[in-house]
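Chain A, query sequence.
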Amino acid sequence: MNVTELLEGKPECSCGKAHVCPIDSVIIGKNACDGLTELCREYANILLVADTNTYACGGEKVKRIIGDKIADILVFNTVGVLVPDEKALSAIEARITPKTDLIIGIGSGVINDLCKHVSFNAGLRYYIVATAPSMDGYASKGAALILDGMKVTTNADVPKAIIGDVDILKDAPFEMIQAGYGDIIGKYSCLNDWKLSNLVNGEYICNEVLEATYEEVEKTVRLADGLVKREENAIVALMEALVAVGILMAYVGNSRPASGSEHHFSHYFEIVGIVKGEEYLPHGIDVCYSAIETAKIREKLIAIDDISDYRYSFDKDAYESSIRRVYGKLADEVLTLQNILGWYSHDRISVYREKWQDIRKLLSDCPSSEQMRALTEKVGLSYDSFTDFYGKEKIADAYLYAKDLKDRYTVLWLYYDLFANK
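Chain A, predicted structure.
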């Protein structure tokens, strides 16, 4: 299904749910920003939000097209990474007046998440002018933020319009194009996690959404050479895939079709980086590399023929000590989340025993770590640079504790249940 078809929704689906998409307009291609003339016709007090870099990419172009309908412009003067935290949210909220009738974000991940959150809470419509084909969150409902130091996804609404002007997108830093490619390639991992949770826990799954997401992944794999050359048709196709996946998330009401163990790794690297003042890679690039690691985890599990002698045990004191070592000042919040979920008190081994051969077969359906590594290298990403960047200890901790940041069952729980106390 293409983006236009996805915008129409699916009122009757084989999963039994009606899927709707509340986005009004998606314009991706040459001179896409020109569409703002019509999209902004009924608005008179627009707030533009960007950062220094994204405004330089598209700010003047948007300003020229919209003209005097712009009431205010907020440009975050960023040095390094703009963190989507309480301070950034407050800066946007302070610019909203009783007359503000539309927010337009100019940017990618962070700007989009900030504006989604603020516009939702303020009851305002919101558009995003994308400056890079870097992630799949443009069309998703949630807003990924750092609140109280923790990576959380807050309830929000989708933008009513998404603008992807290829003249802006193709000039994005190449690592952001790599990130967009990586975010899509990582779906091999998360879709396998979704099927695994369906098998182990009976979690709801929509096979039509699942297959539509796979379709976008397969399309993206074929784009690698064109992306390296910054070919316009490849850039447009990548942006369309990223938006399509976001719409598919909106279909099911959460990020399950697009986020699993590989995203938990990425969130772990980001949070630990923020807590400890250490560098971390762009989200999509982390996702791409992390999908290699989760493939390795699947291979370790597939290699186990028989789990009849496995027993689950949990040393709470040792676990809490490890969480405090890994997450530092955020440890209490991580522990609180897991105490609420209560997943450490569940012995899932009996379920695994009953379904082990089916589990192994399902895990085998995911690309191998070597296949994922080859896909990564197609866009110039070196796996060795990833392992050198984070080091063996940090990556080893991710295997056991990245899962603790989220309330989602993935292969990381299966790995922990079988290996942590073996």
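The radius of gyration is 21 Å. The longest strand covers residues 70-76.
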